[in-house]
TrEMBL record:
It comes from Oikopleura dioica. InterPro entries: Kelch-typ_b-propeller. It comes from the Eukaryota. This is Uncharacterized protein.
């Protein structure tokens, strides 16, 4: 039985962005090893500690390791190297907007290549199996960049000055951009489902409700999108060849949650 877990973890630092009324949430990164499944969270506070949630007892434990840089808001994390490590990039420290990235393996953090552009609230997703980010809430640009073993390189610009969206990589090497806000149009909420494939952006569908600051997870042949503004839980169904087939609303969240943490687990986990 499929069950999605949604975790909302408040932290003490207010979420300093536009008119968000909720406090910031922890950012969860999954390090899936052969011996232990360890989702790792990075707390958005001045000392930015990391935590682990262990599946066998559902406990939350603070780790001694720290990130190399303070990332209060707008940063992103992506599981890499088959779940063994997490790439953590961008964000705002309270003093500067980061272009930097670091890699966390569960015990140490190592700095890696910095992007050419800022990508606060530009997210991270996989395009051709490489970490990719699009847009920036501060600079309000359309730039997309992808990270290889030699550094960041430019991809085609997105058609809109978009940010605060969700990025999801598909098995066919393409990447979807879902929702967001268009800062070329006064920050209008977006319902578009965009696909970057073969170096081209194409709009392939629409959410039933425009949204931003949501989270998405790809399970089987469906993407589950949890929106911040509308509270709607929407499911995007795909064919076996990963063509978008249908969009449906399957429920509502109990409140407005910024970037809720999603992961798949067994039925009645920790109940």
């Amino acid at each position: 039985i499929l069950q999605l877990w949604v975790i909302f973890l408040d932290c003490k630092t207010p979420f300093l962005k536009n008119h968000f009324e909720k406090r910031a949430r922890h950012l969860l990164v999954f390090l899936l090893t052969q011996t232990n499944y360890r989702p790792i969270t990075e707390q958005i506070e001045h000392n930015y500690p990391c935590y682990s949630i262990y599946y066998y007892d559902c406990s939350l434990n603070e780790l001694t390791v720290r990130l190399n840089e303070e990332r209060r808001s707008g940063h992103a994390a992506l599981s890499i190297e088959n779940g063994k490590k997490a790439l953590i990039c961008f964000g705002w420290s309270g003093r500067e907007i980061h272009k930097t990235c670091e890699i966390f393996d569960g015990s140490t953090t190592v700095s890696t290549f910095s992007a050419d552009s800022t990508h606060r609230d530009g997210g991270l997703g996989l395009y051709k199996n490489q970490p990719t980010s699009v847009g920036c809430v501060d600079e309000k640009h359309q730039k997309a960049e992808t990270l290889s073993a030699t550094g960041w390189t430019a991809l085609p610009d997105h058609p809109k000055r978009i940010s605060i969206h969700s990025l999801v990589g598909l098995e066919n090497q393409s990447m979807l951009l879902i929702g967001g806000r268009d800062y070329g149009n006064d920050g209008a909420f977006q319902s578009g489902i965009w696909q970057l494939k073969d170096e081209n952006w194409n709009k392939i569908g629409e959410l039933l409700q425009a949204d931003y600051s949501g989270s998405a997870i790809y399970i089987g042949r469906s993407i589950y999108y949890f929106g911040y503004y509308s509270k709607a839980i929407q499911r995007l169904d795909f064919t076996e060849t990963e063509e978008l087939q249908n969009v449906a609303q399957i429920g509502n969240q109990p409140g407005n949650f910024v970037y809720p943490v999603l992961f798949q687990t067994v039925s009645n986990y920790c109940i």
